[in-house]
Hints:
Layout: E1 10-14, H1 31-44, E2 48-50, H2 89-97, H3 101-106, H4 111-127, H5 132-144, H6 146-161, H7 178-186, H8 190-223, E3 227-232, H9 241-245, E4 250-258, H10 268-272, E5 275-282, H11 284-289, H12 293-303, E6 308-311, E7 320-323, H13 330-333, H14 338-345, E8 351-353, H15 360-381, E9 386-388, H16 398-404, E10 409-411, E11 433-435, H17 445-456, H18 461-477, H19 491-503, E12 508-509, H20 513-517, H21 545-548, H22 550-562
Parallel strand pairs: 1-2, 1-12, 2-3, 3-6, 6-9, 10-11, 11-12
Antiparallel strand pairs: 4-5, 4-7, 7-8
Helix pairs in contact: 1-8, 2-4, 5-6, 6-8, 12-15, 17-18, 19-22
Amino acid sequence: MLDLHPKNKMGGVLAPLFALRGSSDLGVGDTQALHELVDWCAEIGLSVIQILPINETGIDHSPYNILSSLAIEPSTITTTPEFLPELAVEDFSFITSKYDLPRMRAREVCYVEVKALKLELLGAAFKRLSDSAKIRAFRNFQEENKEWLQPYTLFRSMVHLHGQSEFFQHWPAEEREYASAQKWAAELQGEKKIFLEHLQDFYSYIQWIAFSQWQDLRRYAESRKVALMGDIPVGVSLHSADVWAHPHLFDLTRSCGAPAEKEFYVDGFTKNWGQNWGFPLYNWTEMFQNNLSWWRRRLRIWRSIFHMLRIDHVLGFFRMYTFPWYPSDNIRFASLNEEATRGLTGGHLPRFMDQDDSTEGNRQKNRARGEALLRIFLEETEPYHLIAEDLGMVPPYARPSLQELEIPGLKIPIWERDEQGELIRGPDYHRLSLATYGTHDHPPLKARWQQWIQDAASEEPARSHSAVSQMRDLLNFAEHPNSEVPQPFTENLHLALLKGLFACNSWLAVPLITDFFGTEHEFNVPGSAAESNWKTRLEIPVALWMTEKKALISRVQTILKTTCRKILYD
């Protein structure tokens, strides 16, 4: 076990798995690439690796729009004979020869090709599964996980039979709900029955391999004194196995999202209404009646893979902003005012649920509900293993609640200000926090700085003043108050900003990998359906970082030592 306690300040990196290039790369980052990242972190003195969700996704490849709260995305599996012993070398060579691997490795992630390739390789390995000990281990996995695995594999087989379409609302009537689909499956005869059972076994096998690789990775990371931080998405897809099998646990009339914020004005809809994520709202009444067993199992299983868990959009557990329509209808409402919108929705508008924070009574109810949920979460994760993503429109009680529960929240320096609007100094940060310059949803630090330089030259006084002020604020945070602004984003400036982050009082300092290296790669533009979202890959393979970035890494190692960011010990 690793000693995860806030008494020791730790440094780390946030690296989207898909963006990593491994030595056995097949077009997307996988467990093998993460093995290499563990080695790199251990070598330079970083002790935390934060990644985005690894849940299985469907046609939309966002790691937050998930097909299952528990199933692992098959493309994260390393599908080479070295990591997948059942896969024969000749099968690997034959299957990969049908794909243009040089192109897939060189470009951004092409999910359609990558997933097809990896499923084909996993299928070849499954056909050769014959070792009796391994078959027993596989059957034990199925038995131990049958509560969630049986409905998932039936759902996943249905997706397969319908051309990989997860939109079960359009399947034949007898397949649209789990209970009726079970009856339909039980009544199959002959070859159809055998084929369906084979499909269910295959998708069980994929999960067995995935969990085996990820749990092996956890043990390896522990051996290198590196902690893995996973990510629990706030919702599940409307077209997920969870909604299909347990519709009573969700309020399907409302879609989750976030109110309009100036940080994320990407189009007319988000400026007018905010972000409509498309996840159904939870039916908390039903969930509490069953002692939150769905959530308990979810947290317990992910803790078998990760040492720490980041809870996405923790503010939604206090009160969730919801829409009375799903994203497919956003275009209808993009430019409408409230009166016209009410006319189309029967009087309903986007709003917080169960209630907003407009009165003291509402605030007390929201705080009580959120704390009740988080206390139950803590029962499954232990102290200091849960991190709260508390960004957005933060209600006044949320951060005091998190501090009372001893759950670290996030500190993004440019937004951490006192009541007078002054930037809070890093040494004054609460120890129970995670400091970073931005998440996967924000432009990298270098891109922000370049934009501020452009804005500083603007003929609009307000725009120019704002840019200069933000540059000066970050330099003040980094203990360089007398530096000239504007100034270009040089290596010295980059390292000064990194040192400011690692020097703060937060328990965890975890810059995005692009901010660590000072690049401009962007992974997601919230509120948009940009074709480039979730596809960007880092140019240099992980195994080459120590040589290709030797000078930068050496200077960062010095920063880690001087700021007392420590490696983990048992």
